[in-house]
C-alpha cells in the first residue's frame, strides 16, 4: 500500500472515530454528540436538520450491533476506550485500546473484547469476511494470528491490516487477533 493511500485511510479513520461523518458526499461536524440515523431515514436528513438538533454528525447508514445484515459476517460497535479495566467492564462492544497498546507497525486501531462479552464472532472470522464497526465503517479481514496468553505485541510482528481485533479463546489458553483493512 502506498504511503499516500495509507495517509488518506488514516485521515478517514480518524474522522469517523472523532465524530465526523460523511453523508451524501458531505461531511458533518459540530461540538455536540453524534446522532445515528436509521438507514431508511438517512436520505431525509439534511445538514440543516443536523444543525437544528445540535448533533455533531450523522452516521448513516448504520446497523445496530448484533443485528443481522447479510453483507457482513459481524456487526459491532466501540463501547469504550481505555486499558484492561475498560475491556473488563464487559459493555458488549469493542474497547478502543489504541492509545494504551504498544504496537509495532502503523495500525490505526487496536480493539479487544472478551469472548463472553460479545467477542465470540472474532473466533470464527476468516480472510475475506466483512465486518462493520458502527461509527468506524466497513472492514475486510485480511489476516489473523493465534497467540499465547501473555505474549507481547511482538507476537503480532508482520501482521498486516489497518486495525486489529482481539479476543481470547474459550479455554483461556490463547488469543485470536484478526487484522482488518478498511473497505472502500
Looking at this protein, list some descriptive labels.
184 residues, alpha/beta, Sortase, Chain: A, 2 domains, seven-stranded mixed beta sheet, two-stranded antiparallel sheet, 4 helices, disordered N terminus
Characterize the structure shown.
By secondary structure, the protein is an alpha/beta fold. The protein has 2 domains: 3-59, no CATH class; 74-182, Sortase, Chain: A. It has helices spanning 3-17, 39-42, 47-53, 84-88, and strands at residues 21-23, 26-28, 35-36, 58-59, 74-81, 94-96, 109-112, 130-134, 137-148, 163-168, 174-182. It has a 7-stranded mixed sheet with strand order 6-5-8-9-11-10-7. A hairpin with a 2-residue loop joins strand 1 (21-23) and strand 2 (26-28).
Query: From the coordinates shown, what is the CATH architecture of the largest domain?
Result: Beta Barrel
How many distinct beta strands? 11
Oligomer: single chain
> Which shape, going by the Cα principal axes?
globular
How many domains make up the 3D coordinates? 2
CATH top level label of the largest domain = Mainly Beta
Major sheet summary line? 7 strands, mixed
Strand order of the largest sheet: 6-5-8-9-11-10-7
Task: Please identify which CATH superfamily of the largest domain we are dealing with.
Answer: Sortase
Number of helices: 4
* Helical/strand content category: alpha/beta
The low-confidence runs, each spanning 5 or more residues with pLDDT under 50, are: 1-8, 18-66
Roughly how much helix do the residues carry, as a percent range?
Answer: 10-25%
Order of H and E elements = HEEEHHEEHEEEEEE
CA radius of gyration: 17 Å
In what range is the share of β-strand residues?
A: 25-35%
Mean pLDDT: 73
Amino acid at each position: 500500500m502506498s504511503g499516500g493511500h495509507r495517509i488518506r485511510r488514516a485521515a478517514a479513520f480518524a474522522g469517523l472515530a472523532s465524530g465526523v461523518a460523511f453523508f451524501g458526499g458531505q461531511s458533518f461536524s459540530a461540538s455536540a454528540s453524534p446522532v445515528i440515523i436509521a438507514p431508511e431515514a438517512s436520505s431525509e436528513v439534511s445538514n440543516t436538520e443536523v444543525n437544528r438538533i445540535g448533533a455533531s454528525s450523522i452516521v448513516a447508514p448504520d446497523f445496530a450491533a448484533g443485528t443481522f445484515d447479510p453483507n457482513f459476517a459481524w456487526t459491532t460497535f466501540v463501547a469504550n476506550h481505555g486499558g484492561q479495566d475498560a475491556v473488563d467492564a464487559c459493555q458488549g462492544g469493542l474497547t478502543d485500546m489504541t492509545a494504551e497498546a504498544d504496537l509495532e507497525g502503523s495500525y490505526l486501531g487496536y480493539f479487544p473484547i472478551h469472548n463472553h462479552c460479545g467477542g465470540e464472532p472474532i473466533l470464527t472470522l476468516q480472510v475475506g469476511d466483512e465486518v462493520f464497526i458502527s461509527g468506524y465503517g466497513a472492514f475486510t479481514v485480511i489476516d489473523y494470528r493465534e497467540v499465547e496468553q501473555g505474549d507481547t505485541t511482538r507476537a503480532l510482528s508482520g501482521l498486516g491490516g489497518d486495525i486489529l481485533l482481539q479476543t481470547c479463546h474459550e479455554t483461556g489458553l490463547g488469543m485470536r487477533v484478526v487484522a482488518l483493512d478498511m473497505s472502500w
